[in-house]
Amino acid sequence: MDLAPKQSESENLSILKSTAEQRLKVFMQDVTGRALVMMESATQGQHGIAMDLVQEAFISLHKSYAEKSTTEWYPLFYTILNHKLQDWRRKEARRAQPFSFFKKINLDDDDIELNEIVDENTLNPFDFLDQAVTAEEIQDAIGQLPVRQQQAFMLRAWEGFDTHTTAEIMQCSEGSVKTHYHRAIQGLRTSLAHLNPYGGGSSE
What we know:
By secondary structure, the protein is an all-alpha fold. It folds into 2 domains: 11-102, no CATH class; 108-198, Orthogonal Bundle (Arc Repressor Mutant, subunit A). It contains 7 helices and no strands. The chain has helices at 9-42, 47-65, 70-96, 135-143, 147-158, 163-170, 174-191. Helix 1 packs antiparallel against helix 2 (47-65), helix 1 (9-42) crosses helix 3 and helix 5 crosses helix 7 (174-191). The radius of gyration is 20 Å and the shape is globular.
């Protein structure tokens, strides 16, 4: 006869909850910095708004997907964060245009896909420069891009997601991701060309 005390169901749930919270803490430490950079660029440097969006995404992730593996959390988190960002952008657009609720708001000014773009390999943000530049200079250059180009570049180049996963996160076609990413690289090369006297701007 087993005389060892049995763990109650509530104790088991408490352990599982504690484990999920510990994993979330480590996960947050890993992605918070990059997510904040992305949101600050997308909100034109509004640090408070960026913090709120990132925190809300973490809360939603833990609330709805605590049982998922840490690996699964990465695309889920950025999908949630993208939803939060788009909701915020829509509210800002309606605030700027009080009667915009009567029509659909197009938040993206570069959604036309370019045909026959070859999917470019994921770049390290520093790879297209022959000399080191500061993270602030790269962030400033990213902030000058349209928001969807920012997202495509940072999800692919900084987070390392492939085109398919990036498209799922951004809720657009893979062709759109290729277009946004291609234009982002061209825009960054142009913006940072003065820091790279040997590159001669775009390699296109």
